[in-house]
Amino acid sequence: MHIPVKNNVTWVGKIDWELKRFHGEEYSTHRGSTYNAYLIKEEKNVLIDTVWIPYAQEFVDNLETEIDLNDLDFIVMNHGEIDHSGALPELMRRRPDLPIYCTAAAVKSLKGQYHGDWEFRTVKTGDSIDIGNGKSLVFVEMKMLHWPDSMATYLTGDNILFSNDAFGQHYAVNHPFNDLANQEELYAECIKYYANILTPFSALVARKIDEVLALNLPIDIIATSHGVIWRDNPTQIVEKYAAWARDYQEDQITLLYDTMWEGTRRMADAIAEGIRDSRPNTMVKVINIARTDKNDVITEVFKSRLILVGSPTIGKGVTNATAGILEMLECLRFKNKKAAAFGCYGWSGEGVPRIRAWLERAGFAIADEGLGVLWNPDIDALENCRALGRKLANA
Ligand code: FEO
Hints:
This protein has helices at about 55-65, 80-85, 90-95, 105-115, 185-200, 200-215, 235-245, 265-280, 295-305, 320-330, 350-360, 380-395; strands at about 5, 10, 15, 20, 25-30, 35, 40, 45-50, 75, 100, 120, 130, 135-140, 150-155, 160-165, 220-225, 230, 250-255, 285-290, 305-310, 340-345, 365, 370-375. With about 400 residues, it is of the alpha/beta class. It has a seven-stranded mixed sheet.
């Protein structure tokens, strides 16, 4: 199944409706995904990227219905990660002499993963290749967006930016164009993708967007490697990235808690009541982190200006779900957000100071030393929780 994109550019990727987990178990894909690859047929015939390993055979078989593999002049690998390079070994088995254009870092990642004795031709920002009919491919390195090897490829004449992971989202759609997608679902997947994958690289994202815009290249289409192709007002997603990359936050406070005997859950409810009393227009989300998809949790943190993390003390520490989220927060390195800790305990009460230290390590500004409650909260303790909520609502 191939889909025309523009003139002699065709989508030759794979829609994966079944995908529920990506990066092993690290990223949930509630709405599946796509692995977008593109075929350009000018005087030179060029393939941009491939698909994930399980679909390698299917991908190359389908590609052969579009072009005789011997007529391919070269492949551009914008990124070496397996979801885009997975079909490369099968393609190279059938066309072992096919030149591969990629960054120097991608040579390392592709060799490291597949150990193939292939003909690599390295490119860097500003390099271009004439593909005939007045058109060229221009390469732009996208180092650490999100791998060292990432790059984008721009097709002059058709004004298409093949951006790979950047501006993508895990979203299976039958006809992958942004104007044909459900906009609410599309943007929910875009912000989740940014929050969970690109947050640590936000400073680089902001700089790269400025760098690309300064080139003054006309961009008619942004052809990503996951989800929709942006053809209707394509720079709308660039503007979103520019906003998300600058320490994005909304007027939202999110309470993340785990609970064993409902004490910490009751604290969370009371803190939320206090916030409502003090700032009724602030969006408040109260989330049991043990029962909620961890990537959806991270998306809510991304939107927040303040978070509260609560766990009962267990074994001188915090619950497994709490530790998992705190580890994710530390790795994602959110900026310009505040935080506080809370939780019940029975005798020693290490949970709250442990969460507070972890939040501090993760780069959050500590808005309050936090609140620990001995045993199950009574009326006075719940009032203390409401008072904490009232205080932090305006933090
Ligand atoms: Fe979609 Fe970084 O791979």
